[in-house]
Amino acid sequence: MVILMAMEDELLESLKKKPVTLRFPYERARPEDRMQAKVTWEIEKCIGCNLCVKVCPSNAIKLIGRGRKAEIRYHVGRCLFCGECVDVCPTKAIQTTKEFELAFTKPEEMILEFRR
Amino acid sequence: MVQRELMAILEVFFFPGFLFLFSLAFFIEWFDRKLVAKFQNRYGPLYVGPKGILQPIADFLKLLSKEDITPAMADKVPFALIPLLMLTFSMTPLFCIPITGSSALISFEGDLIVVMFIMTLTALLSFLGAWVSTNRFSTIGGVRTGLQMFGYEVPLNIVMIGPAIGAGSLSISGIVEWQSRGVWFIMTQILGFAVFSLCLLAHLQRVPFDIPEAETEIVAGWLVEFSGKKLALIRLAKNFELVLAASLMVSLYLGGPTGTLLPNPLTFLIKLVFCTFILSNLRALFARYRIDQFLAAAWKYLIPLALLQISLVEVSLW
Amino acid sequence: MVKAIDIPFGPQHPALEEPINFTFEVEEERVVDVKIRLGYIHRGIEKLAENRTYHQNVYLVERICGICSFAHTTCYTQAVEELLGVDIPERAKYIRTIFCEMERIQNHYLWLGFTAKAMGFETLFMYTWRDREAMLEVLEMISGKRVNYGMNTIGGVRRDITGKMVERMEERLNYLEERANYYKKVCTKERSILKRTVGVGMLEPSDALNLCAVGPTLRASGIPQDVRADEPYAAYGEIPFRVVTYDGCDVASRILVRIDEIIESVKMIRRALDGMPQGPIRVKVPKNVPKGEAVSLVEAPRGEDLHYLRSDGSDRPARLKVRAPTLANLPSLRKMLKGVNIADIPIVIAGIDPCLACMERVILVDTKSKKGQAWSGEELWRYANEWYRES
Ligand code: SF4
Ligand code: SF4
Question: What is the pLDDT of residue B132?
Fold first, then answer.
């Protein structure tokens, strides 16, 4: 059977409903528990093992210096937020945050440094 | 004497003249957008003014300030003139629509024919606009506009004559006058009303008959080369056409501004909003037809139905 | 008789999400011939993969396609696991299956909206994309991401599905199934949709087979071919399901095949959730992969996806070759486009669910002699190194 206006019921129905759109800057969805965004370092814990540098798929991490003196240079612009570095770090020096609105005005700002 | 002239000037420029019509055009655009958004479970315009009611004006002003490009190959003079002509042509018929009482600002025996003529002219203008902008997509869009016109123009004009025969007058004011005695033509000519709405959708180039502008097929069709001020004017003209379409539905079939206990202009507005609701609802309901399918449907169904309606009217008058 | 004219379509066109160029030879309103030109968004992923470790490549491969990212990672990790000779835990297999099916659901919803847009049905487009959100939410809940999930890893999956998640999944799946049934009703009954889709873009079964069509495009021509059934991977061998086919051979059947696949996928996820064994979700794997070659097949939402992997014993692949489903569907797209009306072009193109960046190929053309040339691996290697040194 072919009918005209097959979606009329749904249309009238949605007149009563509240729009589903999120008015983004004013309304925000609750972040999921497992959400991963920018990562940060607790640099005191880092032992400079270089594991995170090796595992990072997008070469977003650089180690400057060695051993317990090492400092981290983190390119936010390159990071995929995959969380591999968090998983691999033996001393749990890396944590993910839920900070995902990462717009910068200058390219230099996208390189974060974690110093001792 | 002076007072009467002052009144006439006020009527032309403020109510129900230019100012009123401009605000009405923007209001109807907002209502249409908001309603379709609501149908689609979205917000639609939201931030400019309360509930986004000023959004159409903001869009208009934004377009005015945008760069206005004339293609090198285009026919310069007609290309610049067409948006202006579109605007005038779509606005003029509105003065023949009775809004405050049963007679309009301009009314004479035969103004219905003038309105029909001007409506055809706007369609022709879009064809011309497509042609002079010499773009591949706009040419296709223009040809489609022309073809589509062959489809809807005939039934549209036939059904517009229906109320005229019923009322025995070729003037819109006369038709409204006749209906103010109590019988609206929608009650006696429901078939005509349906055909009329569909033809108006085609005239307004809205889904399902937005074939000349089909975005996914030919980008923006005949509009493709217009930008900046010209696009702003064309969009405004389209709003006026929407208002005209809705108010023709009101005047010819729904008894115009009379027939309720409310003041006349208010009655007119309510009916206008109702008609826009119908047009917007239809817009959200279909997929786009193909031009050959539209033409076939128009000649196979719309025209016979329109003729049937007319003969029914004739028979009932006997 | 009007002489045939050439109409270019793309690389920039609102009906295309990605750049590709078609040149249509048009007689009156009919398309008589089509030339397809690729190469606008070649990203060199296969080459890039040779410079990264197997583990890093999981994330690179994931970014081949934004929509069927899980299919690509599954395909890649399967190939690596085959070379390594590891058997991944049962639970990981089930989770992979569930993710593959969830990805199929969200892809098909996305595609339905995209096709609706191509035929100018904006409302349907808005509705399907709204409903797709329900699936994305579940994906985000489990993996933490909406598109590139980062779930797969060599030797298993990275995140587990907990009991509380299952509850929320069930609820979303019910909603999605109900909506899919509703869209099926709309797409079989709404006159304006039928007008635009029935009998449009015909692909006869024999042509479909000869031109090696894959996925829903093939199944809409009535041929029940599906990697999940023919060569079960992950946990597909243990979950019963129906291979959906329709024999209308047109765009309408392609729509119905996909809607039915959504419904079937919902059922499969339910079965998988019921039968999911407990246990670990990943095993540790060595860094270096033994010498060898492997080919892995996965039924991506768009069709059969193929990854070929060659290892030379180091921690980086010697060669990775990806054959995304859209590439296999292009010859049949050409066949479908012959004879359609100009206005139907966007719908027919949308019908194969094109994902162009995934399948991009380049050919080197000598601008003077206008000849294309095939390069051997060594030549390419030398060229790349030289180019790298110069710049
Ligand atoms: S989250 Fe992933 S991409 Fe980002 S720094 Fe860590 S390992 Fe690298
Ligand atoms: S893995 Fe952890 S400890 Fe090792 S270098 Fe990175 S941050 Fe430091």
Answer: 86
The domain of C349 spans 21-41+328-390
pTM for this model (two decimals): 0.87
Cα B313 → chain centroid: 25
Which of B100-104, B110-114, C279-283 shows the lowest per-residue confidence on average (mean pLDDT)?
B100-104
Closest to A82 measured CA to CA, from A33, A116, A34: A34
CB < 8 Å to C112, chain B: none
Cβ–ligand 2 contact at A89 (below 6 Å): yes
Domain end (from C326, C361, C377): C326
User: Does the residue A87 lie in any domain?
Assistant: yes
Choose among B37, B46, B285: nearest Cβ to A7: B285
A48 lines ligand 2 (CB under 6 A): yes
Asked if C158 reaches chain A (Cβ–Cβ under 8 Å), the answer is yes
Taking the CA of residue B52 and the nearest CA in chain A, the distance in Å comes to: 13
Task: Using the 3D structure, point to which of C292, C310, C326 is the last residue of a domain.
Answer: C326
> Which residues in chain B are closer than 8 Å to A9, comparing Cβ atoms?
none
- Which ligand places an atom closest to the C-alpha of A74? 1
How close are the terminal C-alpha atoms of chain C, in Å? 55
Percent of chain B whose predicted confidence (pLDDT) is above 90: 0
As a whole number of angstroms, the distance between CA B17 and CA B28 comes to 16
pLDDT mean over C344-372: 78
Instruction: Establish whether residue A51 lines the binding site of ligand 2, counting it when its CB lies within 6 angstroms of any ligand atom.
Output: yes
Q: Do C370 and C249 fall within a single domain?
A: no
CATH number at residue A81: 3.30.70.3270
CA–CA separation, C184 vs C258, rounded Å?
10
Rounded to the nearest angstrom, the minimum Cα separation between B57 and chain C is 24
A54 falls within a domain? yes
- Sort B50 into a burial class: Cβ within 10 Å, 0-12 / 13-18 / 19+: exposed
Question: What is the extent of the structural domain holding A59?
Answer: 31-114
Residues C27 and C113 in one domain: no
Does A102 reside within a domain? yes
CATH number of the domain that residue C64 is part of: 1.10.645.10
Would you say residue C16 lies in a domain? no
Round to whole Å and give the CA distance between C342 and C356: 21
Task: Measure the N-to-C terminal CA separation of chain A; round to a whole number of Å.
Answer: 74
- Round the average pLDDT of chain B to a whole number and report it: 83
DSSP string, B135-184: -HHHHHHHHHHHHHHHHHHHHHHHHHHHHHHHHT-SSHHHHHHHHTTS--
Contact list, C189 vs chain A (CB under 8 Å): 1-3, 6
pLDDT, averaged across chain C: 85
Look at chain C and report how many structural domains it folds into. 2
Distance CA C330, CA C345 (A): 14
Same domain, C204 and C269: yes
Query: Residue C2: inside a domain, yes or no?
Result: no
Instruction: Give the number of other Cβ atoms within 10 Å of residue C37's Cβ.
Output: 13
Closest CA–CA distance from residue A52 to any residue of chain C (Å):
12
Q: Is the beta carbon of A39 within 6 A of some atom in ligand 1?
A: yes
